[in-house]
Amino acid sequence: MAQSESMMAYVKVFSELISDDVAFSEAVQEATMTIAVLWEDQSLRYFLSAPVIKKDMRERVVRAVFDKMGANEVWKKVFVMMIRKDRMQSLQVFKNELRQFADVRCGIVRGVAQAAIELTDSIKQDLTAFFKEQLKSEVAIDYRVNSEVLGGLKVNLGGVVLDASLDSKIKEAKNRLLRKRA
Does the pTM of the predicted model rise above 0.85? Predict the structure, then answer.
């Protein structure tokens, strides 16, 4: 079974155990943050996935840490199940599959907006509200500074690309001129 298919099975279990969308969304946020923190530290990655460390030892430590954190019980159970089934190397895949599944379940369109400069909070709020209205859906936009964007904005939202940058306008004008020449 492909890694992604295997992780989708865990995602579905996770989803089925939490029926309320708000609680599910909160648990997904906790799970994705936990994985991000665990995976950025090489020694933690090793502890979670090295075959020389016994599963029961990993499970005890994870249970103790999750208990101290006050972690969501469903997330703790799914994580422990993944330890027992030697799925720690697939945590990143699980995180990505979980995020995508949660977005579909909760009706969220996720994307990235890039500009050459940091956008003000007011502009970010206006853009988010605009896309929410246009898409008739909740949106989650990650705003990034990208010095390669020449004036304006590039947005990739739910697979749809909107390029309202000066760079794209210059390329369009160039292409029109080249077509007229031909």
Answer: no
CA-CA distances (angstroms) from residue 59 to 9, 44, 56, 102, 125?
Answer: 20, 13, 5, 26, 42
CB burial readout 89-122, b (16+ within 10 A) else e: ebbebbbebbbebbbeeeeebbbebbbbeebeee
> What distances in angstroms separate CA 156 from CA 8, 18, 160, one per listed residue?
25, 30, 5
Confidence of residue 1 (pLDDT cuts 50, 70, 90): low
pLDDT of residue 182: 67
Question: pLDDT-based confidence at 16, cuts 50/70/90?
Answer: very high
CB 97 within 8 A of CB 128: no
Q: How much is the CA Rg of the chain, to the nearest whole Å?
A: 21
> Distance between CA 104 and CA 112 in Å, rounded?
17
Domain boundaries in the chain? 3-105, 108-181
